[in-house]
Automatic annotation (TrEMBL):
The gene is dntt. Keywords: Magnesium, Metal-binding, Nucleotidyltransferase, Nucleus, Terminal addition, Transferase. This is DNA nucleotidylexotransferase. The lineage of its organism: Eukaryota, Metazoa, Chordata, Craniata, Vertebrata. It catalyses: DNA(n) + a 2'-deoxyribonucleoside 5'-triphosphate = DNA(n+1) + diphosphate. The keyword Transcription regulation does not apply. GO terms for molecular function: DNA binding; DNA nucleotidylexotransferase activity; DNA-directed DNA polymerase activity; metal ion binding. Belongs to the DNA polymerase type-X family. GO terms for cellular component: nucleus. It comes from Cottoperca gobio. It is found in: Nucleus.
Length: 399
């Protein structure tokens, strides 16, 4: 790898800049609601939410509250604050008074009280209390480790553990392989991944895929497809036109990455997808497609403009979290839709489908309960059309 003419070689490999499917227009910001205020839907999938957030002071407060409720297993309140944040993110204007929120959906008494504090004092005391709470701080720290969820974090907290050194010094704690890698690469993978790093990874995955079969395809998805400049990982969908070869493709990619010395961690999950078991009446957090959660070694020389690294880091490489999913080709549109996110946008798409259309949507399929049949889709546009929704571009799905 050393000595390759990086600047020349990587530049022609980078195919285009993101987002690829139409670019956001130059934003025109206003600070007051246009009169009359256009009706704002309660569903994120009927709103266009770009990365331009005019109400950060409120949404950041709501996100702290949502996370705190999540740690306390209070799903209802957690979702209420996530919904409220999402509504405010979609507004092309900044809320300057409570009066301006009168016609907005999903804002209850509690959210309005927080907004009132923020408007009056520039801060919410409830949020300040959470941020200075030892339990919240500790759970936030523990869940920032790859492989550590709220339940494990809570367990460790209840044992009196408060820091990483407490955990690593406790002989009674058995870390699984994922958590061991999480601690090993903590410095790197807790640092944001830049768009240039994501594009360079796309070239690497693209190379690995095409060395196997030229017929396979790679698509960048997740937050980067929505136009984000930074992400916590990089998500890809890989597909092969040969039905039933999805597991094989993924295993071959993993093998290729390993031979290049790029594989630092790999958790591979074979497909458990079975069309005969659909539709899912209850939504499951994880889809059944063949997938792998990786930590890859990314060389600075492969990234245009170099790594997004910290001062004084002279290693010339960093570890990055990468997810690869490989759905069967006829499931591609549903998988792409789900993995493009945002989580809130997808949550509301499914809620809209169920409540307004009597349809069941997930990463695998769309089922019409009235007609008792599955609706086929080869593009995301097909899915929006089946649901009777206006098409929303990926960069407008930042709900
Ligand atoms: N997703 C999914 N099933 C999972 C995990 C994720 O359908 N088991 C979807 C939801 C959003 C998308 O995939 C990408 O997930 P993240 O990487 O967590 O979110 P992101 O929007 O890409 O944000 P980030 O920039 O932090 O990576
Ligand atoms: Mg992501």
């Amino acid at each position: 790898r050393e000595g390759r003419p990086a600047a020349v070689e990587t530049r022609h490999l980078i195919q285009d800049t993101l987002p690829t499917e139409g670019s956001p227009p130059t934003p025109v910001a206003t600070v007051s609601p246009p009169t009359p205020v256009a009706t704002v839907s309660q569903y994120a999938c009927q709103r266009r939410t770009t990365l331009e957030n005019h109400n950060k002071i409120f949404t950041e407060a709501f996100e702290v509250l949502a996370e705190s409720y999540e740690f306390n297993m209070n799903e209802g309140q957690c979702l209420a604050f996530r919904r409220a944040a999402s509504v405010l993110k979609s507004l092309p204007w900044a809320v300057l008074s409570l009066g301006a929120t009168q016609d907005l959906p999903c804002l209850g008494q509690h959210t309005k009280k927080v907004m009132e504090e923020v408007l009056y004092y520039g801060r919410s005391f409830e949020v300040d209390n959470i941020l200075s709470d030892e339990r919240f701080q500790t759970l936030k720290l523990f869940t920032s480790v790859f492989g550590v969820g709220p339940k494990t974090a809570e367990k460790w907290y209840c044992r009196g553990l408060r820091s990483f050194s407490d955990i690593l010094a406790d002989r009674s704690i058995h870390l699984n392989r994922m958590q061991q890698s999480g601690f090993l690469h903590y410095g790197d993978i807790s640092r944001a991944v830049s768009k240039a790093e994501a594009l360079s990874l796309r070239n690497i995955i693209d190379g690995a895929v095409h060395a196997i079969t030229p017929a396979a395809a790679v698509a960048l998805t997740g937050g980067f497809r929505r136009g984000k400049e930074f992400g916590h990982d990089v998500d890809f969908i890989v597909t092969t036109p040969e039905l039933g070869k999805e597991d094989r493709l993924l295993l071959n990619i993993i093998d290729g990455l390993k031979r290049q010395g790029l594989l630092l961690y790999c958790d591979y999950q074979a497909s458990t997808f079975d069309m005969a078991k659909l539709p899912n009446h209850r939504f499951k957090a994880m889809d059944n497609f063949s997938k792998c959660f990786l930590i890859l070694r990314l060389e600075s020389s492969q990234v245009e403009g170099g790594l997004h690294s910290v001062e004084g880091d002279s290693r010339g490489w960093r570890a990055v979290r990468v997810d690869l999913v490989s759905p069967p080709l006829d499931r591609y549109a549903f998988a792409l839709m789900g993995w493009t996110g945002s989580r809130q946008f997808q949550r509301d798409l499914r809620r809209f489908a169920r409540a307004e259309r009597r349809m069941l949507l997930d990463n695998h399929a769309l089922y019409d309960k009235n007609k008792k049949e599955f609706l086929a889709a080869s593009t995301e546009k097909d899915i929006f059309a089946h649901l009777g929704l206006e098409y929303i571009e990926p960069w407008q799905r930042n709900a």
